[in-house]
Design goal:
Length: 18
């Protein structure tokens, strides 16, 4: 998954960004 491409997305570390 592209963690640095979305705001509300799941990062590579399995964390949640929003």
């Amino acid at each position: 998954m592209d963690s640095q491409n979305s705001t509300n997305h799941e990062t590579k570390d399995g964390k949640w960004v929003g």
